[in-house]
Design goal:
- Helices cover about 85% and strands about 0% of the residues.
- The chain is mostly helical.
- The protein has a single domain, classed as MetI-like (MetI-like fold).
- It is globular and about 75 Å long.
């Protein structure tokens, strides 16, 4: 019943967007060459599906996203747990992080392309940068918020550092870390598209740029549509993973 209700809301939202879109075209009297209609975009999507172009671009984009995102998470969480436990070291590292964090990953694109060439690596590196800082900062913050009672109890019971990390610190911090994972999904996906517009010859970002250059605005909107849908699915997937981990550890995520 819950999934049917969610599907109903999604359907209503989709119909509302299509209705507003068509209404804007009607009121503004825009030519289809300037603002393609929903039907025209639908035909563009069908053509991309039929010739296999869409599947290839989606496959490449998802590959780049998961490689960059998973590497960022694998590095940021252990590093955040360590820095969260070593306050003096974090006071030295924090100013460096705060200086680098606001710099958009695409600002590093000229260096990334020079160092890594074109293809998958520039986009993967940009995704890594985009996902790394939200996860790192949320992990450090999460460790700081852990109830000191847990740590004192572990110390009294003479629990080893490894057991303390995996059985107490990480489970207690995970609900807060999950917020960083959610933020990182959004920022990484956004900058994946930006990265593919700069140094790639495939992917959804490249599809948009290539279609724009050919003045195929229906395919541009088709690419934007699938970027949005995939971003939504990725965010929901992280939410499901978060709930699953919470159940395994008996904790509730915020």
């Amino acid at each position: 019943m819950k999934y049917l209700t969610t599907l109903m809301y999604f359907s209503i939202a989709f119909i509302l967007v299509i209705g507003v879109w068509q209404f804007v075209i009607f009121i503004g009297d825009y030519p289809e060459a300037l603002l393609p209609s929903p039907l025209m975009v639908f035909h563009g999507i069908i053509s991309l599906i039929q010739d296999g172009t869409l599947a290839e671009h989606v496959r490449v984009s998802l590959f780049r996203f998961f490689v960059g995102y998973l590497i960022a998470v694998s590095v940021a969480i252990p590093l955040g747990l360590f820095l969260g436990r070593t306050q003096k070291l974090w006071k030295v590292i924090d100013p460096i992080v705060q200086v680098l964090r606001p710099v958009a990953p695409v600002a590093w694109a000229p260096f990334i392309v020079l160092w890594f060439g074109i293809g998958n690596m520039p986009a993967i590196v940009i995704i890594f940068i985009a996902a790394f800082f939200p996860v790192l900062l949320s992990t450090v913050s999460a460790v700081k918020k852990i109830d000191k009672t847990y740590l004192k109890l572990a110390e009294n019971l003479e629990i080893g550092q490894t057991s303390l990390l995996f059985k107490i610190i990480f489970p207690a911090a995970f609900p807060y870390i999950a917020n960083g994972l959610h933020i990182a999904v959004g920022t990484a996906w956004i900058f994946l598209v930006a990265g593919e517009m700069i140094g790639a010859q495939s992917g959804l970002g490249y599809l948009i740029v290539d279609s724009r250059n050919a003045l195929d605005l229906d395919l541009v909107l088709a690419g934007i549509f699938f970027i949005g849908i995939l971003g939504l699915l990725l965010d929901k997937s992280i939410g499901l993973f978060e709930k699953w981990v919470g159940k395994q550890w008996g904790v509730q995520s915020s």
